[in-house]
Known about the structure:
By secondary structure, the protein is α/β, with parallel strands linked by helices. It is built from eight helices and 15 strands. It has helices at about 20-25, 50-60, 75-80, 100, 125-130, 165-190, 220-230, 300-305, and strands at about 5-10, 30-35, 40, 45-50, 65, 85-90, 105-110, 135-140, 150-160, 240, 245-255, 265-270, 275-280, 285-290, 295-300. A hairpin with a 5-residue loop joins strand 14 and strand 15. The chain is elongated, with a radius of gyration of 22 Å. The termini are far apart.
Amino acid sequence: MKEGPWRVIFLGTPDFAVPTLKALLAAGENVVAVVTQPDRPRGRGQVVTPSPVKALALSRGLAVLQPVRLKDPHFIAALQAFAPELMVVAAYGRILTHEMLALPSVGFLNVHASLLPRHRGSAPINWALIRGDRETGVTIMWVTYEVDTGPIFLQERTPIGPEDNAGSLTARLAQLGAAQLVKALELLRRGRAIRQPQPEEGVTLAPPITPEMRRLDWSRAASEVAGWIRGLDPYPGAYTHLAGTRLRLFDARILKGEGALAPAGTILSPGPHGLEVACGRGRVAVGSLQLAGRKRLAAAEFLRGHPCIQQVLT
Length: 314
């Protein structure tokens, strides 16, 4: 039984990690340092900007480290000087080193946005939608050197609704993960650490989304096409080509019925849920679209400026 707060080093970078850091601070844990990726150019203007985690850490007066090389002896020495009991990672975005894993005296925990062993890797939320999963969740796991293979501490499930996309699911899982991490630390404080080995069956991988993956294949079934659109919505966006111009698609829905007898990729007509497009099997409705260099528009507004019914997306 431990009394008082844990001495924690937190690692994270994007918006997904922010609720976990906030939850640690709200729970009274002693966050002695935050590790995040170096500032990078972001947005259309490519302005060098700190990560969301860094912005929060600075606003709370926390020490921030942004190593370029994780094996840098000066970085490892700086971590050692903080004498962490626990290290917690949530979407830091880099593979941790043996030197880092050996630092905390109690252990190293990860907030992972899937029900491990399903969707091991850096893009679990995207792949849950792409693969048409009906539920997902978060796993609090003990970090080992081999990515996302460590013992499970806690898991919490949540359904995936037909209107969910990567953005909405990320926001929900970020809050769920934060709550489960605080719960895990309290259990740990009471001496109730759980180390459940991951099952050998049911392993799937969730690799990074490459530019080539983002291009839609209209010969696929509507369920698969919609999965790709929803899984990359709002960022980085699935795309196709309309008359040779790149077009990003969002807000996809699978339509009931077999669909019109038209070649895959044919823009059929506007419907109540957006622009209807034929797939290899079935149809999808696309609620909003964005031409390269233009703003994102609702389907009805897009059609007013681009009368494209019966054109074929490629």
